[in-house]
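Homework help board

Subject: predicted structure for assignment chain

Our instructor gave us this sequence and asked us to write out the predicted structure in token form, then describe one feature. I got the tokens but I'm not sure how to describe them. Can anyone check?
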Amino acid sequence: MALNFPTNPGLNDTYSYQGTTYVWDGEKWDGSQPFIMNTANIVDGAVTTAKIADGAVTISKIDDATVKSVKAMVNFAGSSQLIRKQFNVSSITRLSAGSYRVNFTTPLPDADYIPVAMSTNFMTAIDGQTTTSFEVSTFNNSFTREDSSIISVVIY
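My token output:
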């Protein structure tokens, strides 16, 4: 069976036959190198939802999946509790130096969520998880609670 290459290919167009992908390099079809898709190979507007065979991959579906996996997130300043960015966080209460309660806007279905925390201090810890809040503590290198200038937490 003969190969049926497209007659008017554009730069970086591909044609696959029996497990080999050929790439039009502007002069000839090249099947010697595996084709790796990267942004340099994509012409503006070349990839559209209509061109995705089943429509399963769209930016809105990716965004929906991301939002559904993240239950809450916050970035705040420890000493002032100034919330810089948040999703599903209503407020921060400073309990003591280096100790804060983060309150959810909408309660979570259970307290078995997965928190990931970091700060500009030596160590960051999560405690007291409930469906409506959790506590986060930041420690210096002497393991004493101390306010941190940046505290970030993502809840999965």
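Reply (TA_rk): Your tokens look well-formed. For the description, you could write something like this. DSSP finds one helix and eleven strands in the chain. That's the kind of observation they're looking for.
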